[in-house]
Amino acid sequence: MADGLRLDGIAIDLAGEPLLRIDAEVGPGEVLTVMGRSGAGKSTLLAYLTGTLAPTFEARGRILLGGRDITCLSPDRRRIGILFQDALLFPHLSVGGNLGFGLRGGSRRTRRDRIDAALAEVGLEGFAERDPATLSGGQRARVALQRMLLSDPHALLLDEAFSGLDTDRRDRTRTMVFETARRRALPVIMVTHDEADAKAAGGARIQLG
Amino acid sequence: MSPVLRLLPAITILAMLGPVAAGLWGTILPAFGHLPAVGLDGPSRVALDGLLDWPGLAAAVRLPVTTGLAATSISLVIVTLIVAGWSGTRVFAWFLRLLSPLLSVPHAAAAFGLAFLVAPSGLVARAASPWLTGWERPPDILVVGDPWGLTMVAGLVAKEVPFLLLMTLAALGQSAERQSLRVAGALGYGRVTGWLKAVFPRVYAQIRLPVYVVLAYSMSVVDVALILGPSTPPTLSVQIVAWMSDPDLAMRAVAAAGALLQLALVVAALGLWRLGEAAVARWGTAWAGGGGRRHLDEPVRLVGLGAASVSALSIMAGLAVLALWSVAAIWQFPDLLPDGLSARSWSRQAGALAATTGETVLIALAAAGIALALSVGCLEAEHRRGRPISTAALWLLYLPLLVPQTAFLPGLQTLLLTLGADIGRGPVIVAHLVFVLPYVFLSLGDPWRAWDPRQATVAALLGASPLRVLVAVRLPMLLRPLLTAFAVGLAVSVGQYLPSLLIGGGRVATLTTEAVALASGGDRRTIGVFAIAQTLAALLPFAAAIGLPALLWRNRRGLHG
């Protein structure tokens, strides 16, 4: 029971009104899809999982990641990676600078090598010095994915991560993300309103609201 | 959150309101005849009687009320008309580019420029002489310093229009202006009528505090009144400063009584304005519901554009004349231009200029730097707490701008002297901070909050501590607004007159105090030199704030404009 991501009796209220209740377990490499209309609490759930929930909400319940209780940890200690609809690359850093941001430790040389390898892995060899603003939407999504993976997360959250891409790119990016998660045995929670996303994930599904 | 960051909002409020509260306290005691330093052991009516015995009192009380209300309402009307008639058009965009830099032109420089334009020997009279007026010598009429304060009102309006306009623009963003205008247009409303009826109420609700600031400021301003206002008798604020510098120290008690009167006047005028608001709202609701579609829309549009252009041009032309005087050789009336140009005025003032510029820059850097650090700290604390600041806190931010300077600065000086504290550069920086902080905070607040918080989430989940998120992500991304806020702070500090004069105890000479001190003399070349130097000191930081990010981020397209 120590592996994976466990949401243990999570209950979030807003102004005394119950907003969402969730109890779930996501094994390594599995995907839990959370669906629901807007306002159903999808982003609230993600905010709770990342530790960025506004204090106006009241939340109870525990988050266990790999057997470790991370409920009260600050966001930077949770070892959770997130991908949003927008790539949200830091516009003041180069592509390499973005990848290096989350990379922990290592000599200058090994860091450099890992960044280059991460770029090569997604077909972006030699992009390290590029300005992120000059990349295409698909390229940005891949850089965002690699940036997140280089920070060595133990779980992965997807917040409408594929909604910003056109259909063709979307399938390819989705496949790439799910395969990576399976290979690295990362539990994944995906929030989406798109049926195709849910189908491609193929795992358990929760409907909110 | 670290304890320092947690305490920062309280420290900031203390820095802004502490000197105001201390100054008011230092005013109240002497005003009621208690000033042991000169042997007054009150309470007594001594100070009050001194004030009541002053023959200029009636005019000094009337002037701030009439000029303050006039300057505020005229500025508001001009801004309302130009926005109602032109917002969203190309003319408007062009006009804004023209007007924004004028915001940072110090009041004193703008006032000198206007004086150099409209005085009997000014540029306007020269342009019309002798062919139109027949004047071979400057006529003996009192334009600058007229007993009704009309020229002073004009000077205030020219400076407050850019301020209110930029405040209005910020408010427009949250007023769904376009949608309302489209709906009104579809219902057959003219542009101006539609804007006034559908958009104005929402906009006014948001610029109310800045309008109050303009009223309080216009009623108590000292430097503009010294340059453009009547002198026999002067406005109450000018007289308070005169009493403060009287060799007879007992006059400080009279000054304190005057300061309390000044505070009461501003409070009363704000009350009057509030009543006016209610009356206009009542009448306006009936008017808006009356269904009239067009009320002279086209003429009103043109009047708005004309008035706003005159107010903008008067500052720019004024600065041009100041610059010309600073390099003029011989320039006789009624010649439109000087006979020749010379750098003599500049070289003769070089020593004084270097010293006062150094002092000005030092004080401005310190005040703006502290203000920026406190503002960033407060906004970061707000971000980490996840709660936006309340309306009450916003009022606190505006409070130091609503209390008239002449009501608390004299008391602050007296208090510092009574405590035996050293007056000079340090306290001057603290006094500047009172006025610099609100503007820096207001300038930085909107772009800070508009920043996408998901960037912070991403960075934090990549393992960055809150401090690293701030230093390595948020601050670099907000470099442009940070520099702009810093430039705003510098400009506000450079333009300060009264805090430097009173809290500096006459020992702190800035470009502004030197320029204003020249007002009574009439050496136009030296005035030109100092007023232009003062303007440059306020404007150049803005140029840097625009240029620096473009240079630093030249390879980062995502951060351009």
TrEMBL record, chain A:
SMART domains: AAA. Pfam families: ABC_tran. Residues 5-208 form the ABC transporter domain. This is Putative thiamine transport system ATP-binding protein. It comes from the Bacteria. PROSITE patterns: ABC_TRANSPORTER_2. It comes from Palleronia aestuarii. The keyword Glycosyltransferase does not apply. Keywords: ATP-binding, Nucleotide-binding, Transport. Gene3D superfamilies: P-loop containing nucleotide triphosphate hydrolases. GO terms for molecular function: ATP binding; ATP hydrolysis activity. SUPFAM superfamilies: P-loop containing nucleoside triphosphate hydrolases (SSF52540). The keyword Transport applies. The lineage of its organism: Bacteria, Pseudomonadati, Pseudomonadota, Alphaproteobacteria, Rhodobacterales.
From TrEMBL, chain B:
Keywords: Cell membrane, Membrane, Transmembrane, Transmembrane helix, Transport. It is found in: Cell membrane. It is a multi-pass membrane protein. SUPFAM superfamilies: MetI-like. GO terms for biological process: transmembrane transport. One of its GO terms (cellular component) is plasma membrane. The chain crosses the membrane at residues 74-96, 148-172, 209-229, 249-273, 302-331, 351-377, 389-408, 428-445, 478-498, 527-553. Residues 57-272, 357-548 form the ABC transmembrane type-1 domain. This is Putative thiamine transport system permease protein. It comes from Palleronia aestuarii.
